[in-house]
Amino acid sequence: MSAGVRFDPAGALRGSYTPPADKSISHRAALFAAMCDEPVLVRNYLDSADTHSTLDAVRSLGAGVEEQGEGRLLLRGVGLHAPLEATAGLIGVGNAGTLMRLLPGWLAGQPGRTWTLDGDESIRRRPVDRIAEPLQAMGADIEMRDGRLPPFTVRGAELSGIDYELPVASAQVKSCVLIAGMVAAGSTSVIEPEPSRDHTERLLRRARVPFAQDGARLTVSSVDELELDEIVVPGDTSSAAFVVAAATLVGGSRVVVRGVGLNWTRTGFFRIAERMGAVIVGDLEEAGVQAEVEPLGELDVASAPLEGTVVEPEEIPLAIDELTLVALLGAHAEGETVVRGAAELRLKESDRIDAVVEGLRGIGADIEGTADGFVVRGDGSPLRGGVIDARGDHRIAMLGAVAGLASAEGVEVVGMDAAAVSYPGFEADVRALA
Ligand code: S3P
Question: Nearest to residue 172, comparing CAs of 135, 205, 222, 124?
Fold first, then answer.
């Protein structure tokens, strides 16, 4: 195992900071551009391991990818109903769960070809039956290991539209079905139990796909081609959340975050943190906006004392990738912080309930895991510090780093290189603010 990286207690974090490009939106930008007939310019595409996997995947499907530097990509797609004749049968997705779950929606509706999607050890542990079930109901031909895990083999078929009630609020599953809906006969509806990130819906509107949203019901209809010429990717709200948490916890900090995505379906963590006492000033988007563009702007963050809170189940999908940060804030807050209804965390890049409970307990937190969340108690003072194992999970690595900056004695993060999955420049960016 590689040596750990130390994050020692920091003086106040100061300055302005621009997060890397959004991972979720970058994946979607590359996939949607690959489905277009005309070239699409993508600005500010994320340079990370996960989003490179998506570029490799669309290249292997016959799309042209011209990397012009500084996040500019010119993508020459193959069209939505591509013959995809000359394409490779094996698609490596690496660690990218979003690629694993979105791409099959497109491939399932391409008759005459077979593809197998496979990835790393973490991907092979994460269920894909959640996408297979609706795709099979649409007529897809799919095989999985043990009937639920990757490798995932899909033989393209003629699909028909369905009405699908999502059993869990998952933007990945929702997006897979909506994408399949574009290449299926008739109309396809997805009913969401609760709102989750809506980047796919915004791109459908942008691309002039017949798409309607009526409350929790999202309906897409069969379409011949997408109309997109340019996609601008905002800064990643989830990546920025690590710096927002650090600025909140390290006394005397004041950080201005620039160019960050402010889409309401992504900013649940900021609302939870504000309720705990955090000072985060910015033009966050309001709830319920049915837009075609992604809002972005500035956040001005200052350190503040925190109080415990209860995170309600409907808040979970809106803060799904930041819930480990809620645990860290809770460990520094006065009183008790409770997260429940978050069993999905067990199915992420690591079992994030176990990872955060063991990780934070090891550096002095009073935290217990539950089947679907955790309870953490604090008295307003910093955690002691120690060692946190990233478990190969990018977000646990970054959590460990923030915990170290806010701690009394520092934290050594074992496996810090995992951060490169979503945020290769993380360590340099936080050190530049300290
Ligand atoms: C994502 C959705 C979320 C999130 C993941 C990215 C997406 O997963 O955790 O990091 O891009 O749609 P689920 O929708 O499966 O919860």
Answer: 135
Of 22, 50, 236, 321, the catalytic one is: 321
The mean predicted confidence, pLDDT, of the chain is: 97
Closest CA to 149 of 102, 115, 100, 113: 100
Q: What is the pLDDT of residues 217-228, one digit of tens each?
A: 999 999 999 999
Residues whose CB is less than 8 angstroms from the CB of residue 7 and which lie 6 or more positions away in sequence, other chains included? 400, 401, 402, 403, 404, 405, 410, 411, 412, 413, 430
In whole angstroms, give the CA distance from residue 37 to residue 71. Answer: 22
The strand pair at 141-145 and 373-379 is best described as: unpaired
DSSP string for 59-110 = HHTT-EEEEEETTEEEEE---TT---TT--SEEEEET-HHHHHHHHHHHTT-
Q: For strand 310-311 and strand 334-339, is the pairing parallel, antiparallel, or unpaired?
A: parallel
Tokens of 217: 């019901």
State which ligand 1 atom lies nearest to the alpha carbon of 200.
Answer: 12
Residue 189 CA: distances (Å) to CA of 164, 192, 309, 310:
6, 10, 35, 33
Contact call for residues 230 and 40 (beta carbons, < 8 A): yes
- Per-residue tokens: 3: 């040596």
CB 172 less than 6 A from any atom of ligand 1: yes
C-alpha distances (whole Å) from 277 to each of 245, 270, 334 are: 12, 10, 11
CB 228 within 8 A of CB 36: yes
Ligand 1 neighbourhood includes 197 CB (under 6 angstroms): yes
Q: Closest ligand 1 atom, CA of 23?
A: 11
Q: What angle do CA 344, 348, 349 make, to 5 degrees?
A: 170
pTM over cut 0.70? yes
Contact, 29 vs 43, CB < 8 A? no
Residue position matching structure tokens 């195992």: 1
Between CA 223 and CA 225 the distance in angstroms is: 6
Residue 83 has pLDDT above 80, yes or no: no
Q: Which H or E run includes 41?
A: strand 40-43
User: Is the shortest distance between the CB of 344 and ligand 1 below 6 Å?
Assistant: yes
Residues written for the chain: 434
| 106-110 mean pLDDT | 96
**Cβ-based neighbour number of residue 177 at 10 Å:** 26
Query: Which burial class, exposed, middle or buried, applies to 215 when counting CB atoms under 10 A from its CB (0-12, 13-18, 19+)?
Result: exposed
